[in-house]
Design a protein that fits this description.
Largest sheet: 10 strands, mixed
Strand content: 25-35%
Structural class: alpha+beta
Mean pLDDT: 89
Number of strands: 52
Number of helices: 17
């Protein structure tokens, strides 16, 4: 939903959640409900969500991905050996242990949160002692055996502050005291959570309360001057954490929470994110301070909402979980808890965020409202699909329903042992592609199996096929249907789920059989890095397709071919499946107004956005200008670029196909454009013009049938990187239709003579690093390792002019020193291979020895 809708969520219902005193606990304070003395905000009230720049850019849909299961080497330093060491060394490296996660967050938590029911009931004060106790008792009776053990109370639990400016529980909601409720929860074998937001209220600032256990410190001292906005709703003042008293204030609050027995804190309105990502409101200091205090007490720390992915490393450093999208609630009191569109929009966010989750910190998808069909707002298939998405993403499983009223179908979903085990395994899944509504998602598990989900997001029942090669798997694998609890048999090459229902799913465990090979990409959780490795940063090479435009004619008949326009400018229409639309969008066709291909996508919701990941050196945003339109915020690779005015003065005519923003001269590689509606009645997208890198010289040609001659092109990449040439989806035959010699490609005149007169586009397809990404280090001694159960392993990656030597160790013994240097950048090279290992657990470790940089791409092993 838009930021505007989010800020107004449930005005009459949630106004009472604003606590004018204390560290404000207001989950959903309306944007206009600013307390007396609130600071003048430094961001406009129409601030919109920051784009979540996709961390793993994907190549355009025309690109041919490099297969990772069976890479072939061309002029590569391949080493095949037995696992015996050639020379022992006193400095033999061992795999670095993964960073120690907070012990209370090694798995995603399971539990319940009150917020959905506060919305559904229409009563923000629904969270009474009786209700919380009832939910706790119901959880113990119905869900405890499946692992659910958190009872988390959202906004509105507090009322005023104590003599040290710390929030105190509402005596109305908890007449016997909140601690009595917490004690009941603990007696049921459960944990208890409460809710906070950044900053400090104006009343507490003005009262200058003495801070507990901090002589000389007051709540007046710790507010940043001049007064600044601390949260999205403009409720509180920003705290100045350069003052040591500020940390002591947070410590004093956490000390009190610990004394009550609180085990969990939800921290809402965290920025960058929460509708504001231009750093005009920045809660990172609050997050760091709360993290320090909470970690000391062993309390789970969860951040909310719609966190900015560009700061994912910060959230991972300080928190145990972070919301990745807007609220899941439908805001329809008494009607429904959620709706399918709010589930569907999580798929692109899961694709953005999956690699950031793991032991210690998890991607939070919000409440899983699937427990009661009369209130969920979802069909049974949609309820199963939502549960599957949460599980394969290793998202916290916390229910939003009234636990006293779960139906049997909901109970079966929430307590399915095999599905809950998928979630608790803690390996987030990634999509093969999101440019389709029949999506395959997969996660390579530590035990060598895969979790695979087949999602039908489309409007009709459909067959969905998981190709093993897309997972990095070759050979035979056993398949088990986890929802059905049934073994389906062994399959070679692929498995097809038949007639997956609309908005339905199949959830599978795929177990490679003896002799199958498994390829793990550089960012797989099972790959462990030690040292100063970074991901991408210009060190990657993406798969790409560049057209050679050839004008074909016959001067003997009067059709003289003339040089065509460059094919480096590629038009991407608004209907392209690679464009991701977030928010409420429609498409208008047959407009007759001069739009490209006579159609546009449009939205009326502030905060709605589109996002497109491309490979190239430039991009133009093309839309129309009209008086009904307003400002849009443009982001490139997650960084704010400009607010663009797409309006026209009243009375001025509409202008179609206008370039309103451009970027050029970008480093050749993957980039992500995101545009967010900020104001006006409409925002439109007509098309995007992408400028491709110059991979061909020249990139146009002329062929005259009256004077036939071969067409010669020079490649700007190594000739071995050319995967093929296609025309209209059909591959040309290498050696007949064209030949390659070094970096020179010759298109045979006999082939061109058979094409009808006109301009034809020949797509030159170039390989790239697996998944178009890479990890790299510049520090000698840095290592990367993987432990596997198998009989052989290969290290696959690029060679390049800036690379040098690396040592490869098998089970702690030096097996080979490999030279990864080459005179040009080559992807997918088999750098080292060993076979004939005894069946069992083994570890391969690669250590940088020399060269400017070492890149890691794929480990591939043979299953035992």
């Amino acid at each position: 939903m838009s930021g505007q809708k989010r800020s107004r969520r449930g005005l009459s219902t949630l106004l009472a959640t604003i606590a004018a005193l204390g560290l404000v606990a207001a989950a959903a304070a309306p944007a206009g409900a600013t307390p007396t003395g609130a600071p003048t905000p430094t961001a406009p009230s129409t601030a919109t969500p920051t784009p979540t720049g996709t961390p793993t850019p994907t190549a355009p849909s025309t690109a041919t991905p490099t297969p990772t299961a069976t890479p072939t080497a061309t002029s590569t330093p391949t080493a095949t050996s037995t696992p015996t060491a050639t020379r022992p060394t006193a400095t033999t490296p061992t795999p670095a242990p993964a960073p120690t996660p907070d012990p209370w967050a090694v798995k995603p938590y399971q539990g319940w949160s009150s917020y959905s029911m506060q919305v559904y009931s229409g009563n923000s004060k629904w969270i009474t002692a009786d209700q919380i106790i009832a939910q706790s008792d119901a959880m113990k009776a119905k869900l405890s055996k499946a692992g659910y053990d958190y009872i988390n109370v959202d906004a509105g639990w507090n009322d005023g502050v104590d003599a040290n400016g710390r929030p105190v529980p509402s005596a109305t909601l908890y007449p016997q005291g909140l601690k009595a409720v917490i004690d009941h929860v603990h007696a049921n074998g459960q944990k208890f959570g409460l809710y906070f937001i950044p900053g400090i209220s104006p009343a507490v600032y003005q009262a200058a309360y003495p801070i507990a256990n901090a002589p000389g410190c007051t709540t007046h001292d710790i507010v940043k001057q001049p007064l600044q906005q601390a949260d999205y709703w403009k409720i509180g003042y920003r705290i100045d954490f350069s003052n040591p008293c500020s940390q002591k204030y947070i410590d004093s609050i956490v000390d009190q929470l610990a004394s009550w027995g609180v085990n969990f804190v939800k921290f809402d309105s965290v920025t960058p994110g929460s509708g504001i990502s231009d750093l005009s409101v920045d809660a990172r200091d609050d997050v760091a301070a709360w993290s320090k205090a909470l970690k000391a007490k062993g309390i789970w720390f969860e951040l909310s909402w719609a966190l900015d992915i560009n700061y994912a490393d910060t959230w991972k450093q300080y928190a145990n979980g972070w919301r990745v999208e807007w609220d899941v609630e439908a805001y329809a009191p008494g009607v429904q808890l959620t709706q399918w569109s709010n589930i569907a929009r999580l798929f692109p966010r899961a694709a953005d965020w999956w690699r950031y989750a793991g032991p210690g910190g998890w991607n939070d998808f919000d409440s899983l409202n699937v427990g009661n069909g009369t209130m969920d707002g979802l069909t049974q298939d949609e309820r199963r699909t939502a549960t599957t998405l949460w599980a394969i993403s290793a998202a916290p499983l916390y229910v939003g329903n009234d636990l006293t009223k779960l139906d049997q179908f909901g109970l079966d979903l929430l307590t399915n042992k095999e599905v809950v085990a998928v979630d608790q395994t803690g390996t987030p899944a990634q999509p093969v592609s999101t440019a389709t509504n029949r999506q395959v998602w997969y996660a390579p598990n530590a035990d060598g199996s895969y979790t695979v989900a087949l999602f039908n997001l489309g409007p009709t029942d459909s067959d969905i096929t998981a190709n093993w090669s897309d997972l990095g798997l070759s050979g035979s694998a056993k398949v088990r249907d986890l929802w059905a609890g049934k073994d389906l048999g062994a399959f070679t090459g692929s498995y097809t789920g038949k007639l997956v229902p609309i908005h339905g799913v199949r959830l599978l465990r795929v177990t490679p059989q003896r002799g199958a090979t498994v390829a793990l990409n550089d960012d797989a959780q099972r790959v462990v890095y030690a040292g100063t490795w970074t991901r991408n940063g210009g060190n990657e090479v993406a798969a790409a397709t560049q057209p050679l435009q050839v004008a074909i004619g016959d001067s003997s008949t009067g059709t003289v071919p003339t040089p065509p326009a460059s094919g480096r400018i590629v038009a991407v229409n608004d209907s392209d499946p690679g464009i991701t639309y977030t928010g409420s969008w429609g498409q208008s066709t047959g407009r007759g107004l001069g739009d490209y291909k006579d159609d546009v996508h449009y939205t009326e919701g502030d905060g709605s956005s589109f996002q497109y990941t491309f490979t190239g050196t430039g991009i133009d945003y093309v839309t129309e200008l009209d008086q009904s339109q307003g400002n849009v915020d443009v982001y490139l690779d997650g960084q704010f670029q400009k607010t663009v005015d797409t309006s026209r003065p009243s009375g001025q005519p509409r202008l179609a196909q206008q370039v309103v923003w451009s970027a050029s001269g970008l480093p050749n590689g993957s980039h992500t454009l995101r545009v967010v509606k900020k104001s006006g009645q409409f925002m439109l997208l007509d098309k995007l013009d992408v400028t491709l890198a110059s991979l061909l010289d020249p990139d146009t040609a002329v062929f005259d049938k009256a004077k036939p001659a071969d067409v010669t092109v020079t490649l700007q990449r190594d000739g071995g990187e050319l995967a093929g040439i296609v025309r209209d989806g059909t591959a040309l035959t290498r050696g007949t239709d064209y030949t390659v010699s070094g970096t020179t490609v010759t298109i045979a005149s006999a082939y061109l003579a058979g094409i009808a007169n006109g301009t034809v586009s020949l797509g030159f397809q170039f390989r790239g690093d697996a998944h178009d990404d890479i990890h790299a280090t510049t520090a000698d001694g840095d290592t990367v390792s993987m432990t596997f159960a198998g009989t052989g392993v290969s290290w696959i990656g690029p060679t390049a002019p800036d690379q040098g030597t690396a040592e490869v160790y098998i089970d702690g013994k030096l097996a080979k020193t490999v030279d990864t240097h080459s005179d040009s950048r080559r992807t997918g090279q088999k750098l080292y291979t060993v076979t004939g290992l005894r069946a069992g657990q083994h570890t391969i470790l690669v250590k940088k020895v020399s060269g400017d940089i070492l890149r890691n791409d794929v480990f591939q092993y043979t299953a035992r």
